[in-house]
Design goal:
Blueprint (H helix, E strand, L loop, with lengths): L9 E4 L3 H4 L6 H11 L1 H14 L4 E4 L7 E3 L1 H14 L11 E2 L3 H14 L6 H8 L3
Parallel strand pairs: 1-2, 1-3, 3-4
Helix pairs in contact: 3-6, 4-5
């Protein structure tokens, strides 16, 4: 029996207390910038909308190909580059990622723009996915 081919998926990287909360291991570095960026409600909306459209939404703690999450310059950039090297078409979701500083975030997004199929906002990704 053949396994059905998945055409698209949302891979959610590092959405965990360890990163998002001040008391988490990475919290002292990332919790405040993540909260200030407003990325969490946008990502929640993207996850829900993708699931409503029948796309797999996979939450991972560490690196696996593609998507959005916390630490733009770390897990997101590394994963996007690796997935691109493996032949995946990767669209980092620029308004659903965050880094420890705005400068680091912007530099990482500039790198991702050059090394992937290009950054998209959550709304642009939902347009690519199509209607519910």
């Amino acid at each position: 029996m053949a396994i059905p081919r998945v055409r698209a998926a949302v891979i959610a990287l590092h959405w965990q207390v360890n990163v998002l909360r001040p008391e988490g291991f990475f919290g002292p570095m990332l919790a405040a910038p993540v909260a200030a960026s407003g990325v969490v409600p946008r990502a929640v909306r993207l996850h829900a909308a993708a699931a409503e459209r029948g796309l797999p939404v996979v939450f991972v703690r560490f690196t696996i190909p593609v998507g959005e999450g916390v630490a733009t310059n770390l897990v997101v950039e590394q994963t996007a580059r690796h997935a691109t090297d493996l032949g995946f078409t990767v669209y980092p979701v620029s308004d659903c990622v965050a880094a420890a500083s705005p400068e680091t975030h912007a530099a990482s997004l500039a790198n991702l723009e050059l090394t992937t199929a290009g950054c998209r906002t959550a709304d642009q990704v939902l347009d690519l996915i199509g209607p519910r």
